[in-house]
Amino acid sequence: PDEAPAFALALPGEDTGLAVRAARELGSHRLFRDPLANMLAEGLEHPDPAVVSASCAALERVGGLSAALGMVDLLTHSDERVRSAARKALVGLTGDDLGPNAKRWRAVLSG
Questions:
Q1: Phi then psi for 34, rounded to 5 degrees?
Q2: pLDDT tens, residue by residue, 42-93
Q3: What is the dihedral of CA 25, 29, 44, 39, to 10 degrees?
Q4: DSSP letter assigned to residue 79
């Protein structure tokens, strides 16, 4: 998508509103799944919990299973919204609910 590169640049930025919008916009595209998942994975490391949560939701929508291990690390995040968004995305991506236990998720996803 034409807008994808511009939105991808907004993800690591300091403008939280724009970064959240970027994650949501990127998550609405499914055609370029792998490059979009890679862009959205950057949002998992953003300092603002709203951006991290939006990135989790977007990764679930595009089927970003490649970023699943990054979301496992978020199950122990200090912000409940992030923990909840990560778990919801993991359940949506895998079809399994292994609870909030990061160790169990990591063992299953690592093979």
A1: -65, -50
A2: 899 999 999 999 999 989 988 878 889 999 999 999 999 999 999 999 999 9
A3: -100
A4: S
Tell which wins on pLDDT, 41 or 6: 41
**68 or 9: which carries more pLDDT confidence?**
68
Helices (H) and strands (E) in the chain, counts: 7, 0
Dist CA 61 CA 27 (whole Å): 6
CA distance 67 to 105: 13
d(CA 97, CA 17): 30
Q: Among residues 13, 8, 65, which one has the least CA distance to residue 36?
A: 8
Burial of 37 (0-12, 13-18, 19+ CB in 10 A): buried
Q: How many C-beta atoms lie closer than 10 Å to residue 14's C-beta?
A: 10
Q: How far is CA 97 from CA 13, 26, 33, 37, 92, in A?
A: 32, 25, 23, 21, 9
Q: How many CA atoms lie within 13 A of 88 on its CB side?
A: 15
